[in-house]
């Protein structure tokens, strides 16, 4: 069982920038220093809110995320926590400019592999919904890889992993995981650019999902 909370990421702290880059590299996401510099600026402007997902785990999962020795030390919310708090992932929230009703996008949810399957991801989603609500959000939106890549046979869907990328299909559908939390698909488009083993550029379809608060 996990009990997590969110705490803002301070990208002016070099050790936090290093930890964020480390987590993003683990997930295969962009961790270019230039991207993190852009995010630091957007934090100042208020167009991007970045949070650590901090857990005080009571499970026997190995501790954290980071392999780096200069990992920032989160402050535990409880003096009675049996184990020290851990930066087990990150999540971000972005206000969508000039939308009515007021809408926020959830981006880049990541839970460290050693902390998955314990309810932390779901709890982080509940917490980010609260963060959006206190800022006046009426809708939340996000994108997720289309579940067709998990469920639909055919060379362009489930078959694409082995034929194009030489890997096994995903173990589960993140789209379906979000559906379980009340998000509904309103369109699908080919968005995510990946490079196949033979160098071909492939655009993977994303499900655009939203949820009224
Ligand atoms: C998606 C992600 C955030 C889920 O985090 P999590 O802490 O494992 O999620 P929870 O523990 O709250 O939910 C677990 C449930 O999700 C499903 N699930 C998660 N991983 C699964 C897997 N490898 N195989 C099958 N089902 C899985 C199951 O329904 C599971 O419930 P169960 O453990 O009772 O069977 C995490 O896997 C992750 O960081 N993945 C990489 C980044 C990513 O895909 N982010 C989303 C981008 S849109």
Descriptors for this entry?
single chain, 213 residues, alpha+beta, Aminopeptidase, 2 domains, 7-stranded mixed sheet, 7 strands, 27% helix, binds coenzyme A
Strand content: 25-35%
The main pleated sheet reads as:
7 strands, mixed
Order of helices and strands: EHHEEEHEHHHEE
Q: Total number of β-strand segments?
A: 7
Distinct ligand kinds = coenzyme A
Tally the helices: what do you get?
6
The mean pLDDT is 89
CATH superfamily of the largest domain: Gcn5-related N-acetyltransferase (GNAT)
Description:
The chain has 213 residues and is of the alpha+beta class. It folds into two domains: 1-137, Gcn5-related N-acetyltransferase (GNAT) (Aminopeptidase, 3-Layer(aba) Sandwich); 138-213, no CATH class. The protein is 27% helix and 29% strand. The chain has six helices and seven strands. The protein has helices at 14-26, 33-45, 120-134, 148-151, 160-165, 174-179; strands spanning 4-8, 49-55, 86-95, 103-111, 139-145, 184-195, 201-212. The longest helix has 15 residues, at 120-134. The relative contact order is 0.14. Residues 27, 109-111, 116-122, 144, 171-172, 174, 177 line the site of coenzyme A.
